[in-house]
TrEMBL record:
<dbReference type="InterPro" id="IPR014044">
    <property type="entry name" value="CAP_dom"/>
</dbReference>
<protein>
    <recommendedName>
        <fullName>SCP domain-containing protein</fullName>
    </recommendedName>
</protein>
<dbReference type="InterPro" id="IPR035940">
    <property type="entry name" value="CAP_sf"/>
</dbReference>
<dbReference type="Pfam" id="PF00188">
    <property type="entry name" value="CAP"/>
</dbReference>
<feature type="domain" description="SCP">
    <location>
        <begin position="55"/>
        <end position="155"/>
    </location>
</feature>
């Protein structure tokens, strides 16, 4: 019981700290106010992710790292949704699909601002998001009330579409 309490306390403290860091980062990149789509809670049934706002903040970050902006890719969004659903069911982070440049995943964050902050502040995730080979992105979040973490996020970064992918 004590171990569970400690894990919950650490998780909640991490969430608060991550949200604060995200607010500072995002305010430095914009007018100072967080866009509603970045702080919309995804930890409830029927929540809808604002992918455009999420991709915008990712692209702002990529620009600070000298990487070109990503375009939203409907097929990658579908693949990310499938992987996020599997992640929410089995609790195992997904493996990088063939042909994907980078994959990032996370669980437990209630909104994209928190999720992005977590990725931004972990060097391996930050480097992956800024990978110059990536030109397309797919992002999804799945909420599962029965999972330990509730929300499961997957970001897929793809390179240029090659002719065999376009068919």
């Amino acid at each position: 019981m004590t171990n569970q309490f400690f894990r919950l306390l650490v998780k909640r403290t991490s969430l608060v700290l991550s949200f604060f860091i995200a607010a500072v980062i995002i305010s430095a990149c914009s007018t100072g106010a967080l866009a509603p789509g970045l702080v919309a809670r995804m930890d409830k049934p029927g929540a809808i992710l604002d992918r455009a706002e999420a991709l915008n903040i990712i692209n702002q970050y990529r620009a600070t790292r000298g990487a070109a902006p990503l375009s939203q890719d409907a097929n990658l969004n579908l693949s990310a949704a499938r992987l996020a659903k599997q992640y929410s069911i089995n609790g195992t982070p997904p493996a990088k699909p063939r042909g994907i440049v980078q994959i990032r995943f996370s669980a437990g964050y209630a909104n994209f601002a928190e999720t992005f902050s977590g990725w931004r502040n972990r060097q391996s995730d930050a480097d992956a998001i800024a990978d110059p080979r990536a030109v397309r992105a797919g992002l999804a979040v799945v909420y599962s009330a029965n999972s330990a973490y509730g929300t499961h996020w997957v970001l897929l970064l793809g390179g240029p579409i090659v002719s065999s992918e376009a068919k």
